[in-house]
Design goal:
The radius of gyration is 20 Å and the shape is globular. The protein starts with a helix and ends with a helix. It has 279 residues and is mainly α. It has 10 helices and no strands. Helix 7 runs antiparallel to helix 8 and helix 9 crosses helix 10.
Length: 279
Amino acid sequence: MNAPVAASNTWGRAGRLARGEVAEAAARAGLAARGAIYLIVGVLALQIAFGDGKREADRSGALAELSEKPFGSALLWALGIGLAGMALWRLSEALFGAAGSGGRKAGARLLATGRFLFYAVVAFSVLAFAAGSKSHGSRSSDKQSQDVTSRVLDLPAGQLLVGVAGAGIVVAGVVIGAQALRRKYRDKLRLTEMSPRTRTLTDVTGVVGGTARGILFAGIGAFAVRAAVDYEPGQAKGIDGTLRSFADTPLGPWLLAAVAAGLVLFGVFSFLLARWRRV
């Protein structure tokens, strides 16, 4: 067997392994971990909406909330490991392609690469927080957004870069919401194995939760665009600041409560994906 053939066979075996039981376990653990974060963030946002919020409704608030629970340290480690699994799953999709039609196209692999990088950073911050490094995972999403915006604005054409990035996040939010309303997630579910009741629950949580998530992303992007237009990093907001801004609309805290409840449902939807998604 010559070297190219051996290399091809080795790569093929690696691909089968990445798409096999190891990748499946990593994906399902990652989806469950993502669900836990959204569930906690949604509950924290609901507390803010009803005037009883003591923590920031973002990942830092979720980690702080978990750390104070019984077996909090173990929960944080489990969350970080699950998110690391999510990163590994996305890496396998970037290298070998995702399940379903079009999963091996360049666009799908590029998107998987971006998701891998995002979840790798998030997993590292959660694991560092679990290990006792409070400098990781404890910074609010608002502070992080403002720091990044400030650094980018200082670059040549920084104002344009922030504006384009913000507009891109707005578009992403609209796409996320539209795909939820169209129930595109069904394309990746094992629908024939689900009971009618489970399918109904998945549709309710997927549509409402996905729409709320899209609204949140669009809001974050809109504040980034505003920061670029005003050339003011302080205008940028993360998850917590964007959620709180919904209470300043004519609908008052009810809009915040609605979006927060949607994020709770998205957390439940992620748990359902962990069970029924094809990976």
